[in-house]
């Protein structure tokens, strides 16, 4: 059964991200390599991927890519924020699609940041911040460090050991020298509930929101979003697990 499962996975990879990438993944398994190099036609630089990053790679560059992101990526954005940037796949996609945009990417996990730098060091318009987004300044920590790298959740750090810097969206906008976020990709594994509950100020400075709502982890994420934008003019759509909200009153 294990061999059959591996064969089915290989066929799925070949279908979703190309035969060359599927063979690269198979070689990783055989050779025991920690990091492999993958290529995507629309991405200028090679992409580096650990076995645990494959889910995110497929989410951004597999068959979901055209279905999820393309409807959201119109116009010529000036500032893109990738909050919960993981290893940089979405940031690399943004950098290739919008080479004139400034991209600020925020990721709380140090090891994810290491792979992010491999993936995005070739793009001068991408700036990585090793931090977490939150509704107030402070220090954060990863509360589930033993989970998969794309499932990390943050919580406030009450210790004196340092922690990860917390950044608010008003701080991010101000530090970028901008007045609006044209595209915000927000994938923060449930922290969005608290962010939306304190979103009356910063959501008014977002043109397009691309977010995954994690009600399964933190009940009330969806309710918090739609309560925060009640009374606003917006266009909403949902594709796969991703909610797209285009604000029409900014």
Give a brief rundown of this model.
This protein has 250 residues and is of the alpha/beta class. The protein has nine helices and 13 strands.
Cα shape = globular
Strand order of the largest sheet: 5-4-3-10-11-13-12
Q: Counting H and I runs of at least 4 residues, what is the number of helices? A: 9
Using only C-alpha atoms, the radius of gyration works out to 18 Å
Number of strands: 13
Question: How many strands, which pairing sense, and closed or not: the largest β-sheet?
Answer: 7 strands, mixed
SS-derived structural category = alpha/beta
Average of per-residue pLDDT values: 89
| First and last CA, distance | 54 Å
Poorly predicted residue ranges: none
> What is the ordering of alpha helices and beta strands?
HHEEHHEHEHEEEEEHEHEHEE
Percent in strands: 25-35%
Verbal overview:
The protein has about 250 residues and is an alpha/beta fold. Helices cover about 35% and strands about 25% of the residues. The protein contains 9 helices and 13 strands. The strands form 3 sheets. The protein has a 7-stranded mixed β-sheet with strand order 5-4-3-10-11-13-12, with helices on one face. It is globular.
Features:
250 residues; alpha/beta; seven-stranded mixed β-sheet; 25% strand
What's the structural blueprint in terms of helices and strands?
Elements: H1 2-17, H2 19-31, E1 35-38, E2 47-50, H3 54-61, H4 64-68, E3 79-83, H5 89-97, E4 102-107, H6 110-120, E5 126-130, E6 132-133, E7 138-142, E8 154-156, E9 164-167, H7 169-175, E10 181-186, H8 192-197, E11 206-212, H9 221-228, E12 234-239, E13 242-247
Parallel strand pairs: 3-4, 3-10, 4-5, 6-9, 10-11
Antiparallel strand pairs: 1-2, 7-8, 7-9, 11-13, 12-13
